[in-house]
Amino acid sequence: xxxxxxxxxxxxxxxxxxxxxxxxxxxxxxxxxxxxxxxxxxxxxxxxxxxxxxxxxxxxxxxxxxxxxxxxxxxxxxxxxxxxxxxxxxxxxxxxxxxxxxxxxxxxxxxxxxxxxxxxxxxxxxxxxxxxxxxxxxxxxxxxxxxxxxxxxxxxxxxxxxxxxxxxxxxxxxxxxxxxxxxxxxxxxxxxxxxxxxxxxxxxxxxxxxxxxxxxxxxxxxxxxxxxxxxxxxxxxxxxxxxxxxxxxxxxxxxxxxxxxxxxxxxxxxxxxxxxxxxxxxxxxxxxxxxxxxxxxxxxxxxxxxxxxxxxxxxxxxxxxxxxxxxxxxxxxxxxxxxx
Amino acid sequence: xxxxxxxxxxxxxxxxxxxxxxxxxxxxxxxxxxxxxxxxxxxxxxxxxxxxxxxxxxxxxxxxxxxxxxxxxxxxxxxxxxxxxxxxxxxxxxxxxxxxxxxxxxxxxxxxxxxxxxxxxxxxxxxxxxxxxxxxxxxxxxxxxxxxxxxxxxxxxxxxxxxxxxxxxxxxxxxxxxxxxxxxxxxxxxxxxxxxxxxxxxxxxxxxxxxxxxxxxxxxxxxxxxxxxxxxxxxxxxxxxxxxxxxxxxxxxxxxxxxxxxxxxxxxxxxxxxxxxxxxxxxxxxxxxxxxxxxxxxxxxxxxxxxxxxxxxxxxxxxxxxxxxxxxxxxxxxxxxxxx
DNA sequence: ATGAAAGCGCTAACAC
DNA sequence: GTGTTAGCGCTTTCAT
Lengths: 340, 340
Fold this sequence. Notes:
Chain A is α/β, with parallel strands linked by helices.
């Protein structure tokens, strides 16, 4: 089994072109000096033989393969029919793939090894991008121990100042949304947050608490697992709207939660946005297609992914570029759920 | 630049454990025979040194790295804000990643090289999965020429019987949907199709034409690019509904198109499904969250991806397993748009 | 401008 | 049960 593929080697090309392997190598890499005519002969021979340089052998010398791993947390729950953060993740993965390719790297999807030795596949990666690292991430610990370059997209809540994590600026973004809710008439703003122990949830909560405190309002926080999606949002809405003094505005961390809260409000005959304003911290299919559409933050994963790939690739290549400062690019997309 | 990472080698471990490199290799791979006590000593030394076997050097011997490439067509259009087939693709990619990992492979996202030499990143892949291959696919030609294992997910319309393409059974699936539209009261069934020259569109069209012909109905086909999404669907709906004898049922190839057609019908005051029945050939966020929700085919990308990975991995390993026969797993999810 | 030779880190024969 | 040896396909000094 597993008969070795009978590809032409650099030796075959060399023989056919009547030169040495070295010359072939030079002709392809641009290193050294090769006469234009010789280069032509080599290229010709290579084409005839269908020669493709072996990336593995090449990698052996540089101990790099040109593969970046993208560790995707929501990839894992096998039982989940739908994925959380579909939009965001897919846009991120696509942008990261394209950015990586432009840099000469491939992007490999890697499930969270969760401390397992199923991490064998990760061995071929030169470095890792970790989306939504969680507090004291075991994967981060492992990569740190093995001295493998990595970059968290989102800070480790437990290590605020680490150079290994990209700050998303969640606090500032959330504050902007809350200000918008207030500007559109919200006076009692509640928050529906997720449960994963990552920067996004932690900082959103802190920002919300600071915001209500500054306005002498009381805080109302409901938590629902990200994976519970729209149904979780409805449940959260039911909980909020049956309070003695219900909110007139709700900040929802995820787009799905927002859609659920909205549906619950409408089911109760509330007018949106007159009776209740709703905004989400993440744009998604749900916020766009809800009735009415929901104001949401477009997190702009594309520039984020490009930045992340650039930083990681630099590190893989041994050049530490400083992390960009300030909150990630983003845009509050104002829709009918807060606009009247 | 690019200082070689100073990882411990198998030699370092061997020295520290007082054995030979071979023994270390055996201790890790399980090949050969190693005394339990020796193995312990080796493992201990490896742990102390933070040794991780080098996947590249290992791959050099087997000339395989354990990486499968997933060529994703909709990955490419950089200008598109939203992706077509988001749901389907993401579910496919996730399932393929997990299936690959279970098999000991990683899954690398690869943009369509489109005949370019940007394909360097593809060099590390042991084989490729090509989603939605198009007619006379240039990538397919290239891989065939280079003798690189690959598997198209969806047939090449130009090569019906090739063993290199998984048949999705589109014709049969579409026929089921059309039958359902008729059963729910549709008498004049129109079709809104996409424009990509792949099996999905070609076979859907053929199936539709055969179906109306068998019922002595006249065919009404409107084509809209997949990328035009919901807006394209609305335009298609406008075109259909302003006809002298408008359809009372519409089969839409994509979920986005279906949502647009539905919106257009509702904007004209048509009752769904009393006046107009709508069904989609692909389930998506749009079909699920439309008002009312739209009947759609869940293409079940998960089992498809698992099958595709299994077949491809076999081929990479030199064992040609026969392609499964019959249409891919799927389920017609009947929703209010056809159910009254 | 070109080539010979020495590995990169690992595994597979084959001795012992 | 363990070690020796010989490469995998390529790049890279360093001669010529």
